[in-house]
Amino acid sequence: MMEGVLTASSLQCDLVWILKSKENNIKDSAIIHKAIERKLESLDERIGNVRTVDHEELTLRIDNASGLVIYEGSKIINPPKFVIVRIGSGILKSEFHLPLLMHLEYMGVSVLNSSTACNLATHKFLHLQELVRHQIPIATTFTYASKELGDVNTELIDNVLGYPQIMKSIHGNQGSKVVLLPSPDLVSEMKNVLNHEVPYLFQDYIQESHGRDIRVIVVDNKVSFSMIRSSNTTSVKANLSAGGTAEVVTGKYPDAEELALKIARVLNMDIVGVDLLFSDCTGFVCCEVNNCPGITRPVYSGHGIEDDMAEMIVKRYYGKNYKCKNDDLATDTSSECSV
Ligand SMILES: Nc1ncnc2c1ncn2[C@@H]1O[C@H](COP(=O)(O)OP(=O)(O)O)[C@@H](O)[C@H]1O
Ligand SMILES: [Mg+2]
After folding, report:
1. Residue whose CA is closest, atom 14 of ligand 1?
2. Is the pTM of the predicted complex or chain greater than 0.85?
Protein backbone atom coordinates (compact mmCIF):
# COMPACT_ATOMS: atom_id res chain seq x y z
CA MET A 1 0.00 0.00 0.00
CA MET A 2 1.40 3.42 -1.01
CA GLU A 3 0.94 6.29 1.41
CA GLY A 4 2.29 9.85 1.31
CA VAL A 5 3.80 11.69 4.22
CA LEU A 6 1.46 11.29 7.19
CA THR A 7 0.22 14.38 9.02
CA ALA A 8 -2.40 15.03 11.65
CA SER A 9 -5.73 16.20 10.22
CA SER A 10 -6.04 18.95 12.82
CA LEU A 11 -3.54 21.75 13.36
CA GLN A 12 -4.38 21.76 17.03
CA CYS A 13 -1.62 20.96 19.49
CA ASP A 14 -2.36 20.65 23.19
CA LEU A 15 -0.24 22.51 25.72
CA VAL A 16 0.00 19.60 28.10
CA TRP A 17 -1.06 16.00 28.53
CA ILE A 18 -1.28 14.25 31.83
CA LEU A 19 -0.21 10.82 30.68
CA LYS A 20 -1.70 8.10 32.81
CA SER A 21 -2.49 4.44 32.75
CA LYS A 22 -6.00 2.95 32.87
CA GLU A 23 -4.84 1.21 36.03
CA ASN A 24 -4.13 4.56 37.70
CA ASN A 25 -6.15 6.11 40.47
CA ILE A 26 -8.41 8.46 38.48
CA LYS A 27 -8.26 11.06 41.28
CA ASP A 28 -4.54 11.54 40.71
CA SER A 29 -4.78 12.92 37.17
CA ALA A 30 -8.00 14.82 38.03
CA ILE A 31 -6.24 16.79 40.80
CA ILE A 32 -3.37 17.77 38.48
CA HIS A 33 -5.69 18.47 35.56
CA LYS A 34 -7.79 20.88 37.66
CA ALA A 35 -4.70 22.64 39.05
CA ILE A 36 -3.34 23.26 35.54
CA GLU A 37 -6.75 24.49 34.35
CA ARG A 38 -6.88 26.89 37.31
CA LYS A 39 -3.41 28.16 36.51
CA LEU A 40 -4.20 28.62 32.82
CA GLU A 41 -7.38 30.51 33.63
CA SER A 42 -5.42 32.90 35.84
CA LEU A 43 -3.27 33.98 32.88
CA ASP A 44 -4.12 36.95 30.66
CA GLU A 45 -4.03 34.83 27.52
CA ARG A 46 -5.04 31.26 26.75
CA ILE A 47 -1.81 29.44 26.03
CA GLY A 48 -3.30 26.04 25.27
CA ASN A 49 -5.32 23.05 26.38
CA VAL A 50 -4.73 20.44 29.01
CA ARG A 51 -5.82 16.86 28.40
CA THR A 52 -5.63 13.64 30.37
CA VAL A 53 -4.54 10.85 28.04
CA ASP A 54 -4.42 7.10 28.70
CA HIS A 55 -1.24 5.64 27.27
CA GLU A 56 -3.24 2.58 26.21
CA GLU A 57 -4.97 4.78 23.59
CA LEU A 58 -1.69 5.66 21.87
CA THR A 59 -0.02 3.77 19.03
CA LEU A 60 3.45 4.61 17.75
CA ARG A 61 4.53 4.36 14.15
CA ILE A 62 7.83 4.99 12.42
CA ASP A 63 8.49 4.97 8.70
CA ASN A 64 11.00 6.53 6.33
CA ALA A 65 8.58 8.91 4.65
CA SER A 66 6.97 10.37 7.76
CA GLY A 67 9.50 9.65 10.49
CA LEU A 68 7.72 9.52 13.84
CA VAL A 69 3.94 9.33 13.94
CA ILE A 70 1.57 9.00 16.88
CA TYR A 71 -2.05 7.83 16.79
CA GLU A 72 -4.74 8.28 19.39
CA GLY A 73 -7.26 5.57 18.66
CA SER A 74 -7.06 5.43 14.86
CA LYS A 75 -6.44 9.17 14.38
CA ILE A 76 -3.03 10.70 13.74
CA ILE A 77 -2.53 13.48 16.26
CA ASN A 78 -0.04 16.22 17.00
CA PRO A 79 1.93 15.67 20.17
CA PRO A 80 1.53 18.28 22.93
CA LYS A 81 4.22 20.67 24.09
CA PHE A 82 4.54 19.05 27.54
CA VAL A 83 3.72 15.67 29.01
CA ILE A 84 3.46 15.05 32.74
CA VAL A 85 4.05 11.34 33.24
CA ARG A 86 1.69 9.94 35.88
CA ILE A 87 2.41 6.27 35.42
CA GLY A 88 3.49 4.84 38.75
CA SER A 89 6.59 2.73 39.21
CA GLY A 90 4.41 -0.35 39.74
CA ILE A 91 3.11 0.02 36.18
CA LEU A 92 5.86 1.85 34.28
CA LYS A 93 8.14 -0.72 32.64
CA SER A 94 11.05 0.12 30.38
CA GLU A 95 10.01 -2.45 27.74
CA PHE A 96 6.53 -0.90 27.36
CA HIS A 97 6.78 2.76 28.26
CA LEU A 98 10.30 3.83 27.33
CA PRO A 99 9.59 3.68 23.55
CA LEU A 100 6.50 5.89 24.09
CA LEU A 101 8.34 8.48 26.18
CA MET A 102 11.28 8.51 23.76
CA HIS A 103 8.95 8.77 20.77
CA LEU A 104 7.38 11.86 22.33
CA GLU A 105 10.80 13.34 23.10
CA TYR A 106 12.00 12.74 19.53
CA MET A 107 8.85 14.58 18.37
CA GLY A 108 9.97 17.60 20.39
CA VAL A 109 7.82 17.12 23.49
CA SER A 110 9.18 18.14 26.87
CA VAL A 111 8.49 14.97 28.88
CA LEU A 112 8.40 15.45 32.66
CA ASN A 113 10.07 13.28 33.95
CA SER A 114 12.18 12.47 30.91
CA SER A 115 12.47 8.94 29.55
CA THR A 116 15.99 8.67 30.99
CA ALA A 117 14.89 9.86 34.42
CA CYS A 118 11.86 7.51 34.45
CA ASN A 119 14.06 4.61 33.46
CA LEU A 120 16.51 5.30 36.29
CA ALA A 121 13.77 5.99 38.82
CA THR A 122 11.88 2.76 38.21
CA HIS A 123 15.01 0.62 38.73
CA LYS A 124 16.17 0.70 42.33
CA PHE A 125 19.77 -0.28 41.55
CA LEU A 126 20.22 2.04 38.55
CA HIS A 127 19.32 5.17 40.48
CA LEU A 128 21.38 4.26 43.54
CA GLN A 129 24.30 3.61 41.18
CA GLU A 130 23.92 7.13 39.80
CA LEU A 131 23.60 8.66 43.26
CA VAL A 132 26.70 6.95 44.62
CA ARG A 133 28.68 8.36 41.69
CA HIS A 134 27.69 11.79 43.01
CA GLN A 135 28.69 11.05 46.62
CA ILE A 136 25.10 10.94 47.85
CA PRO A 137 24.79 8.71 50.93
CA ILE A 138 23.05 5.38 50.33
CA ALA A 139 22.86 2.06 52.21
CA THR A 140 25.43 -0.47 50.96
CA THR A 141 23.62 -2.45 48.27
CA PHE A 142 24.40 -5.58 46.27
CA THR A 143 22.82 -6.96 43.14
CA TYR A 144 23.87 -9.50 40.51
CA ALA A 145 23.66 -10.22 36.81
CA SER A 146 22.86 -13.90 37.09
CA LYS A 147 19.39 -15.21 36.18
CA GLU A 148 19.39 -17.70 39.04
CA LEU A 149 19.41 -16.63 42.65
CA GLY A 150 21.13 -19.98 43.32
CA ASP A 151 24.22 -18.74 41.41
CA VAL A 152 24.55 -15.59 43.48
CA ASN A 153 27.53 -15.40 45.82
CA THR A 154 25.41 -14.92 48.93
CA GLU A 155 28.34 -15.84 51.18
CA LEU A 156 30.19 -12.73 49.99
CA ILE A 157 27.09 -10.56 50.50
CA ASP A 158 26.40 -12.06 53.94
CA ASN A 159 29.96 -11.41 55.06
CA VAL A 160 29.58 -7.72 54.26
CA LEU A 161 25.97 -7.06 55.29
CA GLY A 162 25.46 -9.62 58.08
CA TYR A 163 21.94 -10.14 59.45
CA PRO A 164 19.32 -8.88 59.56
CA GLN A 165 19.61 -7.51 56.03
CA ILE A 166 17.09 -6.01 53.61
CA MET A 167 16.07 -7.82 50.43
CA LYS A 168 14.01 -5.99 47.82
CA SER A 169 13.05 -6.38 44.21
CA ILE A 170 14.54 -3.82 41.80
CA HIS A 171 10.96 -2.96 40.75
CA GLY A 172 8.82 -2.98 43.92
CA ASN A 173 6.55 -0.19 45.12
CA GLN A 174 4.36 0.55 48.15
CA GLY A 175 6.60 -1.69 50.25
CA SER A 176 5.22 -4.74 48.48
CA LYS A 177 8.56 -6.31 47.62
CA VAL A 178 10.72 -5.38 50.59
CA VAL A 179 11.57 -7.88 53.36
CA LEU A 180 13.77 -7.82 56.41
CA LEU A 181 15.74 -11.07 56.33
CA PRO A 182 16.51 -12.25 59.85
CA SER A 183 18.92 -15.03 58.76
CA PRO A 184 20.30 -16.72 55.63
CA ASP A 185 17.84 -19.63 55.95
CA LEU A 186 14.85 -17.70 54.63
CA VAL A 187 16.34 -16.92 51.20
CA SER A 188 17.67 -20.43 50.68
CA GLU A 189 14.31 -21.89 51.68
CA MET A 190 12.41 -19.50 49.42
CA LYS A 191 14.70 -19.75 46.38
CA ASN A 192 12.21 -21.90 44.49
CA VAL A 193 9.12 -19.88 45.29
CA LEU A 194 10.59 -16.43 44.59
CA ASN A 195 9.85 -14.77 41.28
CA HIS A 196 13.12 -14.51 39.35
CA GLU A 197 11.89 -12.35 36.48
CA VAL A 198 13.90 -9.41 37.77
CA PRO A 199 16.89 -9.30 40.12
CA TYR A 200 16.78 -8.53 43.83
CA LEU A 201 18.84 -6.14 45.88
CA PHE A 202 20.47 -7.06 49.18
CA GLN A 203 20.93 -3.98 51.31
CA ASP A 204 22.36 -2.87 54.60
CA TYR A 205 19.54 -2.72 57.18
CA ILE A 206 19.50 0.78 58.68
CA GLN A 207 18.29 -0.18 62.12
CA GLU A 208 17.84 3.37 63.47
CA SER A 209 15.30 3.99 60.69
CA HIS A 210 13.29 0.81 61.37
CA GLY A 211 9.68 1.51 60.42
CA ARG A 212 10.38 5.21 59.87
CA ASP A 213 11.46 7.32 56.91
CA ILE A 214 11.02 10.77 55.41
CA ARG A 215 9.34 11.30 52.05
CA VAL A 216 10.21 14.59 50.33
CA ILE A 217 8.37 15.64 47.18
CA VAL A 218 10.39 17.91 44.91
CA VAL A 219 8.74 19.68 41.97
CA ASP A 220 10.84 21.75 39.58
CA ASN A 221 13.82 21.98 41.94
CA LYS A 222 11.67 23.13 44.85
CA VAL A 223 10.50 21.21 47.91
CA SER A 224 6.70 20.95 47.75
CA PHE A 225 6.06 18.66 50.67
CA SER A 226 7.81 16.55 53.33
CA MET A 227 6.42 14.00 55.75
CA ILE A 228 7.73 11.51 58.24
CA ARG A 229 6.11 8.13 57.75
CA SER A 230 6.01 5.70 60.67
CA SER A 231 4.89 2.11 60.74
CA ASN A 232 2.07 1.27 63.14
CA THR A 233 3.34 -2.26 63.56
CA THR A 234 6.73 -3.93 64.05
CA SER A 235 7.23 -3.84 60.25
CA VAL A 236 10.44 -2.34 58.89
CA LYS A 237 8.36 -0.61 56.18
CA ALA A 238 7.08 2.91 56.71
CA ASN A 239 4.94 3.07 53.54
CA LEU A 240 1.46 4.52 54.08
CA SER A 241 0.09 1.72 51.91
CA ALA A 242 1.64 -0.73 54.38
CA GLY A 243 -0.36 0.91 57.18
CA GLY A 244 2.09 3.68 58.14
CA THR A 245 0.99 7.03 59.54
CA ALA A 246 2.12 10.43 58.30
CA GLU A 247 3.27 13.63 59.96
CA VAL A 248 3.72 16.62 57.66
CA VAL A 249 7.16 18.16 58.31
CA THR A 250 7.68 20.49 55.32
CA GLY A 251 10.48 22.94 56.19
CA LYS A 252 11.37 21.20 59.46
CA TYR A 253 14.21 18.96 58.24
CA PRO A 254 16.33 21.27 56.08
CA ASP A 255 19.17 18.72 55.78
CA ALA A 256 16.78 16.09 54.43
CA GLU A 257 15.21 18.58 52.04
CA GLU A 258 18.62 19.78 50.86
CA LEU A 259 19.59 16.17 50.16
CA ALA A 260 16.32 15.53 48.29
CA LEU A 261 16.92 18.61 46.11
CA LYS A 262 20.40 17.36 45.29
CA ILE A 263 19.02 13.92 44.42
CA ALA A 264 16.40 15.48 42.12
CA ARG A 265 19.15 17.45 40.37
CA VAL A 266 21.51 14.48 39.99
CA LEU A 267 18.75 12.29 38.54
CA ASN A 268 17.38 15.16 36.47
CA MET A 269 13.87 14.68 37.82
CA ASP A 270 11.23 17.41 37.48
CA ILE A 271 8.81 15.66 39.82
CA VAL A 272 10.13 13.19 42.39
CA GLY A 273 9.24 11.57 45.68
CA VAL A 274 12.49 10.90 47.53
CA ASP A 275 12.47 8.34 50.36
CA LEU A 276 15.20 9.01 52.92
CA LEU A 277 16.19 6.80 55.84
CA PHE A 278 17.38 8.25 59.16
CA SER A 279 21.03 7.37 59.70
CA ASP A 280 23.19 7.80 62.81
CA CYS A 281 26.30 8.15 60.63
CA THR A 282 25.29 10.58 57.89
CA GLY A 283 21.98 12.08 59.05
CA PHE A 284 20.03 10.70 56.10
CA VAL A 285 20.61 8.15 53.36
CA CYS A 286 18.67 7.77 50.16
CA CYS A 287 16.42 4.72 50.23
CA GLU A 288 14.90 5.13 46.76
CA VAL A 289 13.17 7.61 44.45
CA ASN A 290 9.68 7.56 42.89
CA ASN A 291 8.93 9.12 39.52
CA CYS A 292 5.20 9.38 40.24
CA PRO A 293 4.80 10.09 43.97
CA GLY A 294 1.24 9.70 45.25
CA ILE A 295 -0.71 12.90 45.93
CA THR A 296 -4.26 11.65 46.46
CA ARG A 297 -4.29 10.74 50.17
CA PRO A 298 -5.83 13.34 52.50
CA VAL A 299 -2.40 14.12 54.00
CA TYR A 300 -1.30 15.80 50.75
CA SER A 301 -4.36 17.94 50.36
CA GLY A 302 -3.88 21.70 50.68
CA HIS A 303 -0.09 21.59 50.31
CA GLY A 304 -0.13 22.71 46.70
CA ILE A 305 1.93 19.91 45.15
CA GLU A 306 -0.31 19.95 42.07
CA ASP A 307 -0.14 23.77 41.92
CA ASP A 308 3.65 23.51 41.80
CA MET A 309 3.28 21.17 38.80
CA ALA A 310 0.99 23.70 37.09
CA GLU A 311 3.43 26.49 37.89
CA MET A 312 6.24 24.44 36.35
CA ILE A 313 4.35 24.07 33.05
CA VAL A 314 3.66 27.80 32.74
CA LYS A 315 7.21 28.67 33.74
CA ARG A 316 8.62 26.32 31.10
CA TYR A 317 6.20 27.63 28.48
CA TYR A 318 7.28 31.24 28.91
CA GLY A 319 10.93 30.39 29.57
CA LYS A 320 13.02 33.44 30.29
CA ASN A 321 10.00 35.71 29.85
CA TYR A 322 8.33 34.22 32.91
CA LYS A 323 8.87 36.44 35.92
CA CYS A 324 7.24 34.85 38.94
CA LYS A 325 3.87 33.74 40.27
CA ASN A 326 1.97 37.04 40.31
CA ASP A 327 4.04 39.20 37.99
CA ASP A 328 2.74 40.24 34.58
CA LEU A 329 3.64 37.79 31.86
CA ALA A 330 5.30 38.87 28.67
CA THR A 331 4.02 37.03 25.63
CA ASP A 332 6.50 35.07 23.62
CA THR A 333 4.92 33.92 20.38
CA SER A 334 8.00 31.90 19.44
CA SER A 335 7.07 29.35 22.12
CA GLU A 336 3.78 28.43 20.41
CA CYS A 337 3.48 24.84 19.21
CA SER A 338 4.79 24.22 15.75
CA VAL A 339 2.62 21.77 13.85
N1 LIG B 1 17.86 -0.50 53.95
C2 LIG B 1 16.79 -0.25 54.70
N3 LIG B 1 16.89 -0.18 56.05
C4 LIG B 1 15.79 0.08 56.82
N5 LIG B 1 14.55 0.25 56.32
C6 LIG B 1 14.40 0.16 54.98
C7 LIG B 1 15.51 -0.09 54.10
N8 LIG B 1 15.06 -0.11 52.83
C9 LIG B 1 13.73 0.10 52.89
N10 LIG B 1 13.32 0.28 54.17
C11 LIG B 1 11.93 0.56 54.60
O12 LIG B 1 11.07 -0.08 53.68
C13 LIG B 1 10.25 0.90 53.01
C14 LIG B 1 10.03 0.49 51.57
O15 LIG B 1 11.27 0.45 50.88
P16 LIG B 1 11.50 1.12 49.47
O17 LIG B 1 12.86 0.77 49.02
O18 LIG B 1 11.14 2.56 49.56
O19 LIG B 1 10.48 0.32 48.54
P20 LIG B 1 9.06 0.72 47.91
O21 LIG B 1 9.38 1.11 46.52
O22 LIG B 1 8.27 -0.52 47.96
O23 LIG B 1 8.51 1.87 48.70
C24 LIG B 1 11.01 2.20 53.16
O25 LIG B 1 10.12 3.30 53.07
C26 LIG B 1 11.62 2.06 54.54
O27 LIG B 1 10.66 2.35 55.56
MG1 LIG C 1 9.48 3.74 48.84
Report:
1. 175
2. yes
